[in-house]
Amino acid sequence: MVLLAGCEVGVDQSKLVKPNYDLLGKCERPEFPRITAIVDDALCGFISVFEDRESKSGRKIDLNVMLLPATTSVVKPDPIFFLAGGPGQSAVDVGPYLFAVLRDLRKERDIVLIDQRGTGDSNSLSCVEESLYLENFDLTVAEVMAKQVDEQRICLQRLDADPALYTTPIAMDDLNEVREILGYQKINLLGGSYGTRAALVYMRRHPYAVRSAILDGVVPLTMAVPANIAVDAQSSFELLLVDCQAQPACAAAFPSLELHFRELVQRHRDEVIEVWVAHPRTGERVKGKIDPLIFSRLVHAIMYERTMTSLLPLAIEEAYNGNLEPLGTLGYALGGEEPLVSLGMMASVLCAEDMTLVNEPHNSKDFDNQLYRLLKPICEFWPKGSIPERYFEAVSSDIPTLLLSGKLDPVTPPKYGWEAAATLSNSKHIVVAGVGHGVMIQGCMPGILSDFFDRPNPKEVKAACTANLVRPDFFTSLAGPTTLQVIKEGRQ
Questions:
Q1: Cα(40)–Cα(71) distance, rounded to whole angstroms?
Q2: Residue 182, class by beta-carbon neighbours within 10 Å (0-12 exposed, 13-18 middle, 19+ buried)?
Q3: What's the pLDDT band for 341 if we cut at 50, 70, 90?
Q4: In this structure, are residues 331 and 302 in contact, taking their beta carbons and an 8 Å threshold?
Q5: For the residues 231-240, what does the mean pLDDT come to?
Q6: Is the model's pLDDT at 484 over the cut of 60?
Q7: pLDDT, the chain, mean
Q8: Per-residue pLDDT at 8
Q9: Closest CA to 95 of 71, 135, 67
Q10: Looking at the domain that runs over 3-124+165-224+391-468, which CATH code has it been given?
C-alpha cells in the first residue's frame, strides 16, 4: 500500500508511480462546500518544466497539478486526464465541480487535472479580471472590449513569460511530461470544448500514451475557431425558433418571436438604454446599460445552456414590450464571480493558430462575431508562436474515441463532431437532441462515459437513453413554462 500525503492511492500504483510523484501533497481546503469532499481527498502540487521546451534551457515554469485518487482500493493503471475548455480555463478550477457529478469515473481510476501553461496557477497569462467588467453595469459592450484590449497591451509588458511559447502543441508536450513524471504509461483523455482540440493534438503527438478519448463539444483542427462564431449562433437561434413553434404553448404565446427580436434590435440600434436589473450575486436591483450589441450577445450566451434557453422566448418578448429586466438579468447572471478564462492564454493560442486562417469572419443576420472582434486588435501586438507544418490537417487515429455533440450547441454544433469523426477510424459520434454546449453531465451521459472508459469499444456504446434528453418546455410567463396551457385547460 502506497501512502502519499496521508492518502491511500491503491495497491496497483506502487508499481507505476515514480518517486517524483511525491511532489504532490495535501490540497488546500476549498471555499465551496460542494467540492469540499472531493478536494479533501485530492493531492496537489507543482511540476516544473522548461518554458522553452525546444531549447530545454532558460526559464522554468510551474504547472499546477491536482490528482483526485480513485476511491477503490484496487486502482486501474490508466488514469483520466481532463483537458479544460476556453482556451484559457483552469482545469484545477473546473475539474472538481465536473467530477462531483461524474463521480463514478473516480471509482477505479485516478483523475489528473493540470492547469495548462498560461491558465490558473500555471504561470497564468491572465491580465484582466474579466468578470469584474461583466458586473460593471455602467460599461457598454464596446467599452468593455476597449478596456480589455488596452489592459492586455499594458499587461504584456509586465508578464513574466514569453507568450509565444504558450501554444497548444507545446502545452500538450507539457502534459506528456507530467504523465511521465507521475509514472503513468497509458492514459484516457476527457476533453471539453477547446479541450477536445487539445486532446486531438495530444493524440497526434503522443499516440502511444493514449488508451482512449472522450471529446465533448468537438473542435477539430480543421475548424478555424473565430470564423463561424456568428453563423453557428444563427443556426442555434433558428433551431430555437423552430422548437418554440413546435410547442403549442410557446407558439400561442409568441407567434411573432422572430419578427419581434429583429424589431427589438433595430429599435435600439443607435442608442444605449439604462435599465434596472437584479445583481447576479446579491439580488440587489442596480442600474445598468443595455447597448445595441448586447441583445444578440446575451441571446448567444444563454443558448449555451439547455435549461436557460427555456426562458429565452419570454425574455425576448418582455424586452420587445419594454421590460428589459428579464433578458438583462439572465445575461448578467452568466458572468459568475470569478474569471472563467485567461484572455492572455487565449490570445497566445488563437493568435498563433486559428486567427492566422481568418482574414474576414463569416457574419449572420442576427449575430456579430464577438470573438474575432475582440482578438483582432489584440493579435496585432500579441507575440505569436510557431505552429508545426500541416497542423490544421484532420487528425487521423485508430485510438478508441467517443465524440459527443449537443444538437442545440451554438458554438460547437454536431457538424464539427462529424468532421473530426471522419478521420478517427475507431470512433462513435453521439448527438444529443435537447442539449447545448456540454453533453457529458446531462441525463444518462455519465453512465455512458463510465462504461466507455471501462470498455473502450465505440461499436458497443449504447446511447438510446439520450432520446429522453429533449429541450425543456419554454416558459410562457414569469410564472412558468405551461401557464397558458393550464389556463386554457382550466377554461374548458
A1: 12
A2: buried
A3: confident
A4: yes
A5: 95
A6: no
A7: 86
A8: 36
A9: 67
A10: 3.40.50.1820
- CA torsion sign, 164 to 165 to 166 to 171? positive
User: In b/e form, how buried is each residue of 224-239, taking b as 16+ CB within 10 angstroms?
Assistant: bbbbbbbbbbbbbbeb
325/287: higher pLDDT: 325
DSSP per-residue codes, 242-283: HHHHHSHHHHHH-TTHHHHHHHHHHHTTT--EEEEEE-TTT-
Domain ranges of the chain: 3-124+165-224+391-468, 126-160+225-390
For residue 463, the Cα-to-chain-centroid distance in whole angstroms is 23
Residue 272 pLDDT more than 50?
yes
* CB neighbour class for 395 (10 Å; exposed up to 12, middle 13-18, buried from 19): buried
Residues in the chain: 492
And the C-alpha cell for 268? Answer: 435600439
Torsion, Cα 236 238 241 246, to 10 degrees, reads -90
CA-CA distances (angstroms) from residue 61 to 24, 53, 154, 199? 16, 11, 22, 22
pLDDT at 120 over 50: yes
Query: Minimal CA–CA distance to 470: which of 432, 430, 439, 440?
Result: 432
| Residue matched to cell numbers 513569460 | 161
pTM of the model: 0.90
Cβ neighbours of residue 29 closer than 8 Å, sequence gap 6 or more: 36, 39, 40
